[in-house]
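Hi, here's the filled form for the chain we discussed.

Project: internal
Contact: R.S.
Residues: 311
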Amino acid sequence: MVILIHGDNSLRSRVALRNYIKKLRAGDFIVEEHDTQAIDYGFVEEYIQASSLFASNEKKALVLSDFFVSKKAKEYNDIIEGVFDSKTRVVVLYDRVNTQKNAAFHLFERGVVIDCSSLPRREAVQWLYDAIPHQERLSHTIIQNVFDRCGGDMWLAYNELHKIDTYCFPEQATADVVESSVDSQLENTVFKTIDALFGKKRGVAFRELRQHQANGVSALLVLGAIERHIRIVELIREQVHKGVTNSSALSATIKVPPFVVRKSLPFVQQYSAQKGIALYERLATLDEKIKRGLIDPYFACELMFFAVVVD
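And the returned structure, exactly as it came back:
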């Protein structure tokens, strides 16, 4: 049988996971997939032992997704010695360095290790093209341009494409919009400003906004980051109401990084659904006025900041 360890919750590793599962099924494997956090050591041990009783076990595949996110690596280190037999093949998909890997060195010793951190550019761009719902507004060329400007970071490119699509609606995105709104070097700085804003650190948020303006940072970048944050919080709220509270499960469902989910979860309690709707409506109104040339973009940012911090 094959045990497929999906190590990290990232777009790159999920693409690799999808492709490997397709490969297994094409080889007539019966694939059973589980979120590692939702099962325990005993389940895996019993599954493998039961599979070893049948001659057909070479055509069975157990997929353990988000393995290193689950922090159960030490437990599974033991199972290598106790249960695996000569017919068991271990495949480990991982994306980035993770301390949990040190606790699971036997998995790497016994396994076929596939490093997903360098997903081919063509495959990454195609994944983004398939994943973005409004392809009529975001051409393959635009997606490739955004991907390159984001330094090959698929999470960042995915979020930037959503931001561009929101801004350009209902028109098609252009190279000029990409040029003015996508700057990967500024992303961390701008998102720190947004964290301060939604964390009610008013002085810090407004001081950084003025600094962005003095540095010539596009106001569209700031407004796009606000839109993204509101959208993520509301997507999380919707899933929490459905009973999904695990950060890894939320990340996989709404397709944002786990650390973003963990940072955004407190805002679900801090801001009501009504507040979220009101902020989104305010942002849409300001966006329309900017496009019509009725308001200065940075003045629109200030008005949006006031809308966030005022209860």
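Let me know if anything looks off before we file it.
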